[in-house]
Amino acid sequence: MNLYSLLEASFPENRDSICLEIPDGRDRSWGEIESGAARMAQWLASLELPLGSRVAAPIEKSPEGLMLYLASLRAGMVFLPLNTAYRDAELDYFFGNAKPSVVVCPSKNLDWITPIASANHVAHVVTLDEDGTGSLMQASAGFDGQFTTVAVSDDALASILYTSGTTGRSKGAMLSHGNLSSNASTLRHYWGWRSDDVLLHMLPIFHIHGLFVGVNGAMLAGAKMIWLSKFDAKAALRCLPKATIMMGVPTFYVRLLTETAFTQEVCRTIRLFVSGSAPLLLETFLEFKERTGHTILERYGMSETGMLASNPYHQQDGTRFGGTVGKPLPGVSIRITGEDGQPCKVGEIGLIEVKGPNIFKGYWEMPDKTKEEFTTDGWFRTGDMGRLGGEAAGVQVPDDYVSIVGRGKDLIISGGFNVYPKEIEGFIDDIAGVEESAVVGVPHPDFGEVGVAVVVAKAGAVLDTFAIQSFLKTKIANFKVPKKVVVVKELPRNTMGKVQKNLLRDEHRGSFIQK
Ligand code: AMP
Questions:
Q1: 325 and 285 in contact (C-beta within 8 Å)?
Q2: Alpha-carbon distance 360 to 28, whole Å?
Q3: What is the Cα–Cα distance from 84 to 477, expressed in whole angstroms?
């Protein structure tokens, strides 16, 4: 079944009711979202592309961007959302790998994106701006808004989500209609979604959290969203008293707690605060509870899998334990495996492996990588390290609760976004005068984690740390640029010659927080 048809079945009968409430803007009704998506789907269909063609969208968050997502689903295309922070090299890589037939970008970026799209043989480039204007809107305006959603099988691809930047681990996770439908349906019941819910939506829609957990969740319940283009603590304070659910990365919660106006009274209508995409510090969890009386529900998931585990919503499902990501969601299996491939005992740390109807179909055009990440008996290797049961934050938790203790892969999560050190190191090493570099993640009070670049200069070369940061800003998205660059004589290495990133992490741990 087409995911759109599943969502549509829950749309309220009264299509004039508000779907997106937009503070400082014009609200959009369910009918407007539906017919806008239909017109875009008609335009996509008029291009006579094969089913499963990719629609790449490095666009700002907007109601029309949401329509484009729904239109791609309806027309049987594969939606490829991309962060607008991506620069030339990054887009060149994504277009080259995914081979989209359509690219939709903001008109201000058309000049530099068009040549990249042409070089990658993209047939159609149109614009869509944050204010809902652009050539996509003109092209679809002529259609009548009547479109029969294309029937697809559960295995048909609905979306490709790229897991990182340009080198190393940049892979397109292929998510099918069945993957997304099953995850949305599971969360609908597990989190008790209702049609009178109001989701405060402040997350980007190029990422799994905002798009598949937030948007799909609300639409499948026929629930309204308060739609902010991005997180802003002051705006959140104004909108919270009208919402029943808020979803955020830990940074949102940390920032809300810095506001003295953030009180129990502000949260009076909220029934659920959800956190995920990065570890929620126990101190944030506890401070939040003390300030608001609410227990944040932490959940765990990833682009490749959707949501895997969640602390319970309903009391009968159990307790929410800080420091854990809860229990495997219904239908999802989680096991912990040692480096030797043997199952770990309860409480023992190992690699987290998962199975379920929500697990992706593999990496786009990377069969070898796909094979590497699955065990021979069909479990997906998440790359995260964790344990089942044992002690979390000083409390003995039940045996089916998952705690994440670290990441097997070299990855920094900054403000909820993934940053792969290998990619950043590649750019730094290309700078004249740089011998080598290592990028490590260190704790940061606001972003959770940020990168620190430790750089070795070539003999006789003098490096300017600010110039390195400025150079990186022209090459990669801002959120990936290390917040601190230090020049050293040499990198610490073990006897195998591997850079000891753990030592660098320890050394720079106190760069942004008190050690
Ligand atoms: P992404 O694909 O961008 O959603 O990133 C997925 C990764 O984020 C996971 O593999 C985990 O490393 C991390 N992650 C997601 N949720 C949590 C959480 N609640 N606690 C700790 N790490 C998390």
A1: no
A2: 32
A3: 8
Residues 6+ apart with CB under 8 A from 510: none
Q: Pick the atom of ligand 1 nearest to 417's CA.
A: 3
Walking along the chain (515 residues) 10 residues at a time, the average pLDDT comes out as 98 98 96 98 98 98 98 98 92 96 98 98 98 98 97 98 66 97 98 98 95 98 97 97 96 94 98 93 93 98 97 96 97 92 92 97 96 95 93 93 83 86 88 93 93 95 96 94 96 75 92 85
Q: How far apart are CA 253 and CA 470, in angstroms?
A: 30
Residue minimizing CA distance to atom 16 of ligand 1? 277
Cα–Cα distance between 240 and 234 in angstroms, integer? Answer: 10
**Ligand 1 contacts CB of residue 303 (under 6 A):** yes
Domain residue spans of the chain: 28-152, 412-508
**Which CATH class name applies to 28-152?**
alpha beta
- Structure-block tokens of residue 39: 């017109």
Three-state DSSP class for 344? coil
Ligand 1 centroid from CA 300, angstroms: 6
The model carries a pTM of 0.89
Interval between CA 189 and ligand 1 midpoint (Å): 22
* Coil/strand/helix, residue 441: strand
Per CATH, the number for 412-508 is 3.30.300.30
